[in-house]
Amino acid sequence: MKAMRETLAHRFGAVLPEVPDGDGAQACPETWRHLAGRGSSRYFQQRSVAPELIDTLCALALSSATKSDLQQRDIVIIEDRQIRSRIDAMLSTGPLAQEWIPGAPALLVFCGNNRRQRQIHAWRGKRFANDHLDAFFNAAVDAGIALSAFVIAAEAAGLGCAPISAIRNHAEEVSKLLGLPDHVFPVAGLGLGWPSRGHHDAGAAHRRARGPRRPGRVPRQGDEALIGQSSLKPLLRTKAPKSARCGSAYWRALSSDQP
I want to staple 108 with a disulfide (CB 3.0 to 4.6 A). Which of 50, 138, 162, 190 is the partner? Predict the structure, then answer.
């Protein structure tokens, strides 16, 4: 438990209060240790991931919670080489290029699916009453839950992965390539593979600019800004630089005094 708490303290920049005896686990669960120190993988061995393993991970991910058991999420495993090549080209070129994506042995796309719910209404002659923000929102959240469960399951098996939000910048083209029908939409991609050495987010360029960092433990905005007791606290300008100093380019940019 001590090592896990030290890892969290490094990540959030503050020591969390200890869990009282008798509440929660007395020994540190393996899942806690993994989540405390996990990091995204963007560099992989030249080794394929067995289709049977990917299918198992998908089943585990789709066993996760889903809003009202409506199961408004799908996973597309990109196996067609031409489709994969075109998606790789979209995501690895241009001003937002992520050059690591073509090197991922497997690529998956997590989709929100509000179509099945509409189909069931139509088959039973019922009017679809929730044709408003919920139709998008619930499906997107379901896809996000499944994505998170997949990442946890994959990393528990020794795989590495990194979500790809930039796929939404090409949502229409990706939808056409994957043959997604109306009311089914890409929420995030996921690069997957067996991680190589030095695969965590702290890349060589970052280390040269910022100095050495313990691998995989990418700092997070302090929990005092993200967790509220009964209500959320507003993000204060004085709080942002704390995370910026931890090394996040995103927070450094947002907290900069420059316009």
Answer: 190
Considering the chain, tell me which residue range(s) the CATH 3.40.109.10 domain(s) occupy: 51-193
What distance in Å separates the CA atoms of residue 61 and residue 159, rounded to the nearest whole number?
Answer: 15
- CB distance 111 to 185 below 8 Å: yes
- pLDDT by residue (tens digit) across 31-74? 888 898 899 999 999 999 999 999 999 999 999 998 887 888 99
Give the whole-angstrom CA distance, residue 142 versus residue 113: 9
Full strand arrangement of the beta sheet holding 160-164: 73-77, 106-113, 184-193, 160-164
Which H, E and C letters describe the chain, residue by residue? CHHHHHHHHHHHCCCCCCCCCCCCCCCCCHHHHHHHHCCCCCCECCCCCCHHHHHHHHHHHCCCCCHHHCCCEEEEECCCHHHHHHHHHHHHCCCCCCCCHHHCCEEEEEEEECHHHHHHHHHCCCCCCCCCHHHHHHHHHHHHHHHHHHHHHHHHCCCEEEEEHHHHHHHHHHHHHHCCCCCEEEEEEEEEECECCCCCCCCHHHHHHHCCCCCCCCCCCCHHHHCCCCCCCCCCCCCHHHHHHHCCHHHHHHHCCCC
Torsion, Cα 12 161 167 86, to 10 degrees, reads: 150
Question: Rounded to an integer, what distance in angstroms lies between the CA atom of residue 102 and that of residue 90?
Answer: 10
d(CA 120, CA 125): 9
What's the Cα-to-Cα distance from 14 to each of 11, 213, 224, 242, 256, rounded to whole Å?
8, 17, 10, 11, 23
1 band by pLDDT with thresholds 50, 70 and 90:
confident
